[in-house]
Predict the 3D structure of the following.
Amino acid sequence: MTDTTASSPDSDPAKKTTSDVATATTTAAASQPAERGRRSALQSGFSLLARGEPQIWFTGGMLILCLAMIVGLLGLILVSGLPTFWPKRLDLIALDDGQLEIGQPQKLQVRTVSSQTGAEGPQKKETRPSRYYRTANADITGQHFRWIDPDQTAANGIASPEWAMVVERETWGRLHGLPLSLTETIPLPEDTLNELRQLDEFIDLIGTLRSVDSTEEMSQAAEELTELLVKTPPVVTVQSAQRDRGTVDLRIDGHSS
Amino acid sequence: MAGDAYTGLRRRKQTPWSVTFGDAVASRIIAVGGIGTIAAILLVVLVLLGTALPLVYRPSYQDWHTVPATDYQHVGVDDNGLLAWGMTADGTLEVRGLHDGTLISQFPLTNATSEGGAEADGPSITCSYVSIDRATLALGFSDGTFRVTDLQFDTRLMSPGDLPEGVSVNAESPLAIQDATIFQWIDASGVRKSMFAPPQWSPPRSLGDAPVVALDYLPDSSANRLATTTEAHALAVVGQELVLAKISGKTNRLTRKVTETVTTERCSLEVRNTEAQPLRIMLMSGTDHGLVVWPNGALDRYSLSAGTPKFIESQSAVVGDAVVNCAAPLLARQNLLCGLNNGRLQGWMVVRSAEQPPAQTETTPVASADGYQLVLAHDIQASQQALISVVSSEQTHVAVTADAAGHSQLVYVTTDTLLSEKSSSGEGDLQSVNFDPSGNLLVARSSNAISVVEVDIGHPEASWKTYFGRVWYEGHDQPKYIWQSSSGTEKSEIKLSLMPLVFGTLKATVYAMIISVPLAILAAIYTSEFLSPAVRGRIKPVIELMASLPSVVLGYIAALVVAPYLQEHLLAVLIGLVIVPLTFVLAGHLWNLLAVDLIVRLQPWRLPAMAACLPIAIVFSAWIAGPVEDLMFGGSLIQWLGSGQGSAVGGWMILLMPAVIVLVCLVVIGPMGDFSRSAAISRTPKGYALFSLLRLAVVAVTVMFLTWAISAGLSLGGFDLRGSFFDNYQDRNALLVGGALGFCVIPIIYTISDDALQAVPSSLRSASLGCGATPWQTTIRVVVPSAMSGLFSAVMIGLGRAVGETMVVLMAAGNTPVMEWNPFNGFRTLSATLATELPEAAKGSTHFRTLFLAALLLFFLTLIANTFAEFVRIRFRKRASQL
């Protein structure tokens, strides 16, 4: 019972439309006989209506949305996941008040900043783009992140130094900085060590020189001195440590095991 | 000839044994697998049922154990049922062994006083009070003083070797008494030693000159043992005055000497009977309110929060000639229980009256001045006889009553449920029944005996009413559905309404289905009917890739990545929900403008062209959102939602827009369909394309105007959705969950729908196309109706998945058990509740078993969805098979 009643509405519109076509065709043909001769239903706009292009586009659009959802999600996972495997850019920013900041750009955002001009002046709100930087160096600056407005930076203030480094520390979080020098301590061979011991002797000798009286002893000591100077190579490294905002002395010592 | 096959080879007449064997093995394996599957599912149901079933057990009792005693005013027992104390009319505390009623020790009241001597001249006891936990006893005297003591049992475990001289206990004679101490043999490794700590009566504290006729005492409630100050409160009726006393104790840090100061505040008492003898007075909700109960049913409330007591209102507990026989506070002192002589037990609560207009204006005096109101929250027919005593349990919100016929009843006050009734031991006249501190013993006091009975109270908090009905919990102004399975203090109730959880599950499902069903079904229709098999073969797996994403990833991304984005671009997303589909329809109309031969030639480029529409639509939505937000919502939709300021038109437009769109589309398709058809026939294709484009514009403008007009009308009428439907924006909300759940549901619906459409016999398509129908007409009039059963079951299976989905809602729904349809706030589903609370629930507790009940409910919800899907699918398939 239900089957027949349910199937009848489906066939109904079809019948209706065909009859519509027939009647409409006759009326169209009757009303505009002279214009283009006999126009069939297929040549009229009815074929366009029957093709249902907008509806097809609607269904297709939903497919596109589904595809966009899945592709977008996978893309999002890839875009935010993969950069883990590559280091991010590190910018050295000179601010117009002379400070230096070094950090990784995070996101650009248009922020509404309310500023009051003068004591009585109206509070004005302005929107300006601002970039969020991961500046790290919390032991020096006290903060890990910072908003930096473009108009805060000096002209041509943003640079990407080749040697900008990110160091992960056990305390104080990350360190961003530029190395002042890279030194390496090299284990010395045995004979060089011997020479160094001789240098010690040499220093002792200078001490004794100050206290000798006879010329004979003096000439002997001078002879030993010359001998030592010829043999000893200069092994001196001088480092200056400077801890300033933005530029951090970075010192990497090789192990002398 | 007959034995020869066509090939000339001799045909084997017998099935080889290997095939028969394989057949037999396979059929058995399949049978075992099939039956095993059903058995496994049934086992799951059995386990769930088995754990949830004890919830419906009624309290069970052992037999009464009665020991002889004298006529006591109050009695109490220790945790182990070894000792009982009783207070006689002259204030003497007697301790008896509960095994045979032996009098073990006696502590007369005067013993503790420093004055000593003058027993005969001493003031007489005029009233007494025992706290709910039976650990504090307060006595009021005829000279206007009161005294307090703690009642403690000192119980320890010792090894049998440490027993004092002369005491011997063993398995045969497990009890021995020496020096007011009772020894109980537990096993070879332990003996329990229990004694009643001698009461340390406080010195008399004066409340006035007249006799203390009613007294309530609230000991120091601070849990800090290191504090040097204590603060106890007493409320008393002294003569015709109500006195609130604050007893501050200060311990000297060096000498440990306690100095006490008593400050009293008083006001005159509204006297309701000739003797000026109230039945009971009590402090409610801490020390905020004082209640005076009169035998004639008058309940007077005094406000104490200002320091001095002040009479506020009077309510009547009785109707007709009933009389209040007994009254007591319920566990947390939020409920006043009154036992009437007609067997009714009433629970009165002090609630805020700010929102509630006084319902019974003729009985209530003018709305009480302090913003509170004493209301009748619970009314239970506990017995057919007059109630003579009511006492609260110390563990649960169960009260035990005693009636004149000697029966005692257990009543769970919160849901007005009479749990069970137990007749008394029959020894003497029953005077009162109370619980022991652990809640496992009932102690009945009669004129010449003490009777105890072990009771397993079961799960009083579990009932149909708590799970599916509105319950009036303490501290709320009306009955509500509340899920709050853990509480701050042990005295507050566990609130176990499953309604918010079922509601949350439905809300998640509804929002997920609204988003995913149109997407998935329409996408499946396009894939199946308008894509070439080659492209279809490549696109279908991409969509199915969605199903391979773990739901925890979806939830994580929704909660941590999408939620902040949605919060920032909320209006753009809402506008996009309308603009994006509209853009595709518009693009379809524009496509119609192309020359016919071009359309045919460009057919392979249709899908890429559609893809190009999406970014345009998104950019347009984002671009238009800013101005719309400025125009309708004062610059920020989220602030608009939370503030309650600005015009209400925008909110109505958000809500009404989808409805108006559907309405206008129905009008255009239905009543205006003939007009469109005749217009199409009388025009050239190009003319009709332009006409339909114009029609689309008119429809869009009509929708906008109609929505705006209705919204403006409603807004002018003073209706604002904020505060009712809309509320503060929460970043974990139903819209977000709907989208994220869509990822779980879309691939299932899509795949099953696509398969269903593909299963439609191609002869039907060919016949339709052969009759001159266009592919679109074939799809919508032949293929989709034929595949309806498959499409429907696809939707229902997707629904089943959405109902049971856990991780997405757990991470993105906020998990607050609220019951609102607001798309911008969160909810808590059954599945998320199970995931969060089952690891924390104590095994065997009411909460634990309730969670199993919730699991059962979830199981049945999914089962119903799937069964309904199968049922409808079979119905549709029968129809389709006739095609």
About this structure: The first strand of chain B starts at residue 60 and ends at 61. Confidence is low (pLDDT under 50) at residues 111-120, 355-367 of chain B. DSSP finds 19 helices and 35 strands in chain B. Chain B touches chain A through 68 residues (CB under 8 Å).
